[in-house]
Amino acid sequence: MKRYGMVIGIDKERLNEYKTYHSEIWPEVAEALKKANIRNYSIYYKDGLLFSYYEYIGTDFENDMRIMDENETVKKWQEIMNTVQQPLKTRKEGEWWSEMDEIFHLE
């Protein structure tokens, strides 16, 4: 299992819309996440930033992400979310959400 922490900006004026979407996540999107071996997924908000955390339990992350990204319902969901999210200027090439380095973990 690998833990992922990521960060992205959000249009503050559309935060409530974003919250509503996630409180009523489309079942097909939730199922795609599970099929992609993502578990324990959370998104937090603070001062114009979203922080996400999830655990990946699979063995081929790139392939699982590719399959999920090819899902038509996930594509529609992402199109909507991308209008609200604001990627960081410091993100790596090809990133939307900026992956964070884990500094500490205690089990």
The percent of residues in helical segments reads 25-40%
- Low-confidence parts lasting 5 or more residues at pLDDT below 50? none
In total, the number of domains comes to 1
How large is the count of helical segments? 4
Structural class: alpha+beta
**Terminal Cα span:** 13 Å
Instruction: Quote the average pLDDT.
Output: 97
What percent of residues are in strands?
Answer: 25-35%
Report the sheet with the most strands, covering strand number, pairing sense and barrel closure: 5 strands, antiparallel
Task: Describe the protein in words.
- By secondary structure, the chain is α+β, with helices and mostly antiparallel strands.
- The chain has a single domain (2-99), classed as Alpha-Beta Plaits (2-Layer Sandwich).
- Helix content is 38%, strand content 28%.
- Strands 1, 2, 3, 4 and 5 form a five-stranded antiparallel β-sheet that branches.
- The radius of gyration is 14 Å and the shape is globular.
Fold topology:
Blueprint lengths: L1 E9 L4 H9 L3 H9 L2 E9 L2 E8 L4 H10 L1 H13 E2 L11 E2 L8
Sum this structure up briefly:
With 107 residues, the chain is of the alpha+beta class.
Protein traits:
4 helices; globular; 107 residues; alpha+beta; Alpha-Beta Plaits
